[in-house]
Specification:
The chain is an alpha/beta fold and 220 residues long. Helices cover 49% and strands 10% of the residues.
Length: 220
């Protein structure tokens, strides 16, 4: 146990991996490629959602099934091409994971991404070994902002929710962590916290590098 916590649970995209910006850029470009115009607002509103809810949101936006399918095909290909090069890791991610691992703190990952893809990407980035347990979005019925994935992860860890600390970047992630009765630190990625999220989060820290120093200094 470190600083009163029995486990730390990380989100993946936007926290461990610097992929939210990549996904956003690919979706915006895909929409432009098929002549659908600017979908920036829709893309931002989907941050932190499961793949199924994201697809549902885009289908509702496009209305036209044929146009939606062309958008999905284009976006998937653009994302595949980008991730085939490498998976960008957030600055400070390796350092904080290494610090927690060496300290003996159980570390888990709770992502809206499907479990198989989570494992594949963690292995590719050489980060898989840091995590004691992994929960993907396909392992629960309700995705964030519902608390399901965090409650499942705590159960897998054998820890009480109130003794778990969640590290999140998205609004829905913060909402889900607090609904699960857990402490939550927001490390913003594309979206800075609004008044609601500032009130919900137990702390907002600018980067994982600074978060690691707060852990080391005993200030969390």
């Amino acid at each position: 146990m470190i600083n009163g916590y029995d486990a730390v649970i990380f989100d993946m995209d936007g926290v461990i991996f610097d992929t939210e910006k990549l996904f956003l850029e690919c979706c915006i470009r895909a929409a432009l490629d098929i002549g659908a115009g600017d979908i920036t607002e829709v893309a931002y509103s989907a941050i932190g959602m499961s793949e199924e809810r994201t697809v549902e949101k885009y289908r509702k936006f496009f209305g036209d099934n044929e146009k939606a399918e062309r958008f999905f095909d284009s976006a998937k290909e653009l994302i595949r091409e980008r991730l085939a090069q490498d998976i960008p890791v957030k600055p400070g991610a390796r350092e904080i994971l290494s610090y927690l691992y060496e300290s003996g703190m159980p570390v888990a990952l709770a992502s809206s991404t499907k479990t198989e893809k989570v494992i594949r990407e963690l292995i590719k980035a050489d980060l898989f070994g840091y995590f004691t347990r992994i929960s993907g979005g396909d392992s629960v019925k309700n995705s964030k902002p519902a608390p399901d994935i965090f409650l499942r992860t705590a159960e897998l860890l054998g820890k009480e929710p109130q003794k778990c600390l969640v590290i999140e970047d998205s609004f829905n992630g913060v909402r889900a962590a607090k609904a699960a009765g857990m402490k939550c630190i927001m490390v913003p990625d594309l979206l800075q916290p609004d008044d609601e999220i500032k009130a919900l989060a137990d702390m907002v820290v600018p980067s994982l590098t600074e978060l690691k120093e707060l852990f080391a200094e005993g200030n969390i």
